[in-house]
Design a protein that fits this description.
Blueprint lengths: L4 H19 L19 E11 L2 E2 L3 E10 L2 E5 L9 E7 L2 E9 L3 E3 L3 E16 L2 E12 L2 E12 L1
Antiparallel strand pairs: 1-2, 1-3, 1-10, 3-4, 4-5, 5-6, 6-8, 7-8, 8-9, 9-10
C-alpha cells in the first residue's frame, strides 16, 4: 500500500462531503432565470424617427410604437416607418430587449428619389431609461436597382 492512499481517501471523503453539502437544502428550483422586463415598456410611445441609409439620412419625422409586455417578451407593433405596419417579438430583461430575425415592411415611396424602397429589418434593440424609450433597428433597404444598409432610430415618450 502506498503512503498516499490514506491521504487520497481523506480527500475523496472531503470532496464527497462538499458535494453533499452543496446539494443539501435545495428546493430543486434551480436557476430562477432572468428578471422580467420592466412593465413600463408597455404602452404607446410617441416620438421621433430617423431613417438612415449608407448614402444619407432623411429628416426626422413623427412616429409611434405600441408595446405589450409579458414576462421577458415585448411585442412591438407599428414598427415599419410611415406605413405603421409590422410587429415583432423581442426578448430581454429589466430595461432592455433585443430581436433578431427578418421583418419585411411594405414598400415606401420616395417620389423624388425612388419609386419604392422595401425595408427589411434584421436586428433591433430597445432600452428604457427613465421615461424615454430608445429603439434602434438595422437591416437593409432595397429599391431602384440597389440595396443599402439602413438604420431606423426611434426616440420617444408615453
Amino acid at each position: 500500500m502506498s503512503r498516499f492512499s490514506g491521504a487520497m481517501r481523506a480527500n475523496v471523503g472531503v470532496v464527497a462531503a462538499l458535494l453533499l453539502a452543496a446539494c443539501g437544502g435545495s428546493d430543486g428550483g434551480g436557476d430562477p432565470g432572468p428578471e422580467p422586463l420592466n412593465p413600463a415598456f408597455g404602452g404607446t410611445w410617441s416620438g421621433t424617427v430617423v431613417l438612415s441609409f449608407q448614402s444619407g439620412t432623411f429628416e426626422p419625422y413623427p412616429g409611434t410604437l405600441a408595446i405589450t409586455v409579458s414576462g421577458n417578451t415585448a411585442t412591438v407593433s407599428l414598427v415599419c416607418p410611415i406605413t405603421a405596419a409590422g410587429s415583432l417579438e423581442a426578448h430581454g430583461s429589466g430595461n432592455s430587449v433585443s430581436w433578431d430575425g427578418t421583418l419585411v415592411c411594405p414598400p415606401l415611396v420616395f417620389p423624388t428619389i425612388c419609386d419604392y424602397v422595401v425595408l427589411t429589418y434584421r436586428h433591433a434593440t430597445a432600452t428604457l431609461s427613465g421615461g424615454t424609450l430608445t429603439a434602434i433597428a438595422t437591416g437593409n433597404g432595397t429599391g431602384c436597382g440597389r440595396t443599402e444598409s439602413m438604420t431606423v432610430t426611434f426616440l420617444g415618450t408615453k
